[in-house]
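Hi R.,

As promised, here are both runs. First protein below:
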Amino acid sequence: MGNLKALVYNKCRKWAGHTFNIVVDDKATVGDFKEALMHQTKIPPDEMWIVFGVTQLRDEIRLKDLYIADGYTLYVTPTTVEFPEYPNL
């Protein structure tokens, strides 16, 4: 498969708007992608939503089965709230 980009959305100020290059193989699942991204961001995989287009992706699905190819961008929305007093951040 090759290189994919992960763009982190707004809920995590530390990484908001940052793009990460993630290398995965042809058999990689969404869960594998999350694990690889965790090594760069320290965001736990169970606190990530991965979105492609308008669809939230399930961990067990292979990226290849979704026709996600080298150079594509997946969007990451952390589900944690950094500042509980400001839950909309």
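And here is the second one, sequence first, then its structure tokens:
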Amino acid sequence: MCSKKIRNLILCFGFILSLHAEENTAQENTTEENMIKENPPKDAPILLEEKRAQTLEFEENKEAKKNIDEKSLLEEIHKKKRQLYMLKGELHEKNESILFQQMAKNKSGFFIGVILGDIGVSAHPYEKFELLSNIQASPLLYGLRSGYQKYFANGISALRFYGEYLGGAMKGFKSDSLASYQTASLNIDLLMDKPIDKEKRFALGIFGGVGVGWNGMYQNLKEIKGYSQPNAFGLVLNLGVSMTLNLKHRFELALKMPPLKETSQTFLYYFKSTNIYYISYNYLL
């Protein structure tokens, strides 16, 4: 009985001691927390400064990255603009090429034309034919031409093959007679046209070429026998400027150098002429 009471007293005393120990531990923890709050560690400002520096560095890196991204974006935009400009240029060149090819096709083909020209002619007999008077005239020449022209793919240059005839009348050696001047030739010309509108249907140009032909002067002189009148075969030279309207209508202002411009005494009379100056109209069939 006594031992049981003693054991109970011991247990109560142990319980009281454990409660007292827990209270002391709690008080010590509270005291340490208060001391930390009242007296923070000496290295706390350093930690705050490092944190602030890290924050600033992060912000700077973020700003730098943003600037780099903006710069890259601008460079990409400029690159795309250059590519777009180049594509537009290529498209324009392709469209121009197609337009020129179509124009070349439309301007190639057979044509017919009419010519109105002028030439200065002087002629006089040699001494053995003193009964004849002199000739000094500038007859109008009328003519026709027909041929084929072929434009190259650029639509600007072309070759033209054609034949033409020109003739006109003037007063002869006798007051009641007429003399004639005539020329005929086969020609090849190089044409160069410059379009002056967006659709390439109107153009200004120049041309030049050569040919072989014949020209001569003739009048009826039955009473004089054994002499031929001035005429010759030879080289022909063509030079001129042109204007094309709506692809099919071509006007030209040009000169033609005939084969024979001055004679010797091998002919019945002396003959001399200028170049032929003419205007012409060609219609593309």
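A quick note on the second one: Residues 1-36 form one domain. Let me know what you think.

Best,
J.
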